[in-house]
Amino acid sequence: MMAGGFAVRWLVEACGPLVVFITVTWLAWRWGWLVTCLAATVILHVDVHVLWRKPLVATFCRLRRKVKKKILTDSNEFKVICLPTDVNPLTLSMTPDRLLRECSIGHVEFWVENYADDVIRQLHASLTLTECSYFHNAPIKLFDKFRIEAKIFHFDETSLYLEQRVIRYGDEKLCACVLSRHVITGSSTGQLFAHLSQNTRMHLSSKDEHMSLFVRSCSKSIESKKTF
User: Fold this and answer.
1) 2-53 residue pLDDT tens
2) Domain ranges (residues) in the chain
3) 56: closest CA among 2, 5, 132, 115?
4) CA distances (Å), 59 to each of 54, 64, 136, 149, in order?
5) In this predicted model, what pLDDT tens digit does every residue of 81-94 receive, in sequence order?
6) What number of CA atoms fall less than 13 Å from residue 116's CA on the CB side?
7) From CA 93, how far away is CA 69, in angstroms rounded?
8) What superfamily does domain 70-227 belong to in CATH?
9) Are 72 and 193 in contact (CB under 8 A)?
């Protein structure tokens, strides 16, 4: 399973330049160089790999959950490898924006794997990332393999709080931790748990100082928006 996860990313990243080359060549032949230059500008400013990686990850999770079912409070592991497109050329370490991109794809895997994404759609609601906090602990070097362990550590009436721990394979070093708040619009966490047939009085991981500060800061942000 681990090798399969790394292979998927290798395949997607390798196919990216080929797809871009074919697209640009076809546009140049069909529409001329002006349209081609405009298309190339858009491609250079958009992280095109994410456009097909997220649907690919979601499809893979829907197939996998038929074999191994999970509930909302179960942890999830998203396996990643640091590729040349991810690193700062001066330090050969993964840049924070690339790591956060992988965490955003990890969000897709987490919500799809435990059926939360399906229920949100059934309720005609939406799940939006509103706040995020990033803690860096150690660098991730070129070709390092690591996993992003995700787990819900807190929830309230309308929000789910997710912790993602970035752990490097080999020495099991905690390289980073990302805390995020996801707000349900058009529904509530109570309805989500009810449709998933799960008890809202579930056991959650105990919050450390960073988690408690993050939850409190989000609560203050909500209050300030109400008074504004």
Assistant:
1) 444 555 555 555 555 556 566 666 666 666 666 666 666 565 555 666 667 7
2) 70-227
3) 5
4) 9, 9, 31, 20
5) 898 878 998 999 99
6) 28
7) 35
8) Hotdog Thioesterase (3.10.129.10)
9) yes
